[in-house]
Amino acid sequence: xxxxxxxxxxxxxxxxxxxxxxxxxxxxxxxxxxxxxxxxxxxxxxxxxxxxxxxxxxxxxxxxxxxxxxxxxxxxxxxxxxxxxxxxxxxxxxxxxxxxxxxxxxxxxxxxxxxxxxxxxxxxxxxxxxxxxxxxxxxxxxxxxxxxxxxxxxxxxxxxxxxxxx
Length: 166
Fold this sequence. Notes:
- By secondary structure, the chain is α+β, with helices and mostly antiparallel strands.
- The chain has one domain (7-161): 3-Layer(aba) Sandwich (Glutaredoxin).
- Helices cover 24% and strands 17% of the residues.
- The chain has 4 helices and 6 strands.
- Strands 4-3-5-6 form a 4-stranded mixed beta sheet, sandwiched between helices.
- The N and C termini lie far apart (40 Å).
- InterPro entries: Glutathione_peroxidase, GPX_AS, GPX_CS, Thioredoxin-like_sf, Thioredoxin_domain.
- Pfam families: GSHPx (PF00255).
- This is Glutathione peroxidase.
- Keywords: Oxidoreductase, Peroxidase.
- One of its GO terms (molecular function) is peroxidase activity.
């Protein structure tokens, strides 16, 4: 298989184990985030939900991938994670199945994201939960954001990639 060129070249697994193609997301501006329920950055779920509510009608989507690779901060089952996010943050954007984002078992999507948008000093690894990748409507990575970058700080970049509000 040739090197993946856009997010459309990848699949994701839903919490129920079903595999979906991300090709149907092409044409949307997407924020991909690795998340955890027991992290100091977990309150960012609220900001991510706010971005999703604000821009979803203009072709924006947030896709969260729970990950337990950082301090064991996402130990729950898919059902427990979904319930926690819904009850505590009113989450309505897509929550995928748990993934690894680093190491030999890293999900292919995250291998590609890290290669397209390395971190500080060219680091290919993800340092912690709530690392965010902004993908343009063409399916290509626009920018990587650190866990400390709050969702509301990304709004201007999202706005610039979306069609004008009608």
